[in-house]
Amino acid sequence: xxxxxxxxxYLKTTTSTNNYLRAYLEEHPDTECWQVVYTDNQxxxxxxxxxIWVSEPGKNLTMSLFFRSSKRREEFxxxxxxxxxxxxxxxxIKEYIPRGKKVSIKWPNDIFVEDRKVAGVLIENxxxxxxxxxxxxxxxxxxxxxxxxxxxxxxxTSILIEREDGKEVDIYSFMIRCTEEIIKIWRQMKVDxxxxxxxxxNLLYRKDGRLHEFETAEGTLKLLVxxxxxxxxxxxxxxxxxxxxxxxxxxxxxxx
Length: 256
Prior knowledge:
Strand content: 25-35%
Helix content: 10-25%
Order of helices and strands: EHEEHEEEEHHHEEEEE
Shape: globular
Number of helices: 5
CATH architecture of the largest domain: 2-Layer Sandwich
CATH class of the largest domain: Alpha Beta
CATH superfamily of the largest domain: Bira Bifunctional Protein, Domain 2
Strand order of the largest sheet: 1-2-3-7-6-5-4
Largest sheet: 7 strands, mixed
Number of domains: 2
């Protein structure tokens, strides 16, 4: 199976790059491994937890990436897609902003600069029994947008806001770098037969040895971030009960 840099599909506007790519794959079922589509204007973008992804037309990167592979669950866990995608996007964002600013991964796959969100990922994967088949990874990155509506995008930032030189970023070049880095880490995983989960855990947002507030079914709790398990569960330590707890996605949320 070929694993080369695909020729990106550009759309001036679309409802959703994930939806477009899914329809494209139905019409082109022989697509071998990688395909990328990006747009200047996504009108019905989605984020995690059913949120709407709002993006100023022509100012940000909205893209979807498709890949397929044949791997069994014991070789490749579904959460590994979040791991290598988040690491790749963080790596590229880090190249564009000053070194002194902390860029971290907010579980499961948002990218934060300090305490503000700069990127998000939405993953739709397909398995047949215990064998992974394919995934569509939707990626939204705030690039050159300067103003955000706090009702639609609380705690938002962009690469341009975080840069010190005030120069806009070429979105096409940024998209190519993201795709290259995602493919690079995926290839390395196949060579090493090891997921880069340790690196992901080391870069977790608020994994700093301090207590932080989280919203849970029991109310607001002050907990310590310890890491993420192989199955994608967030591990938090509760000092009031001296208990280590695991939370699935949507069972807990950060209070920002």
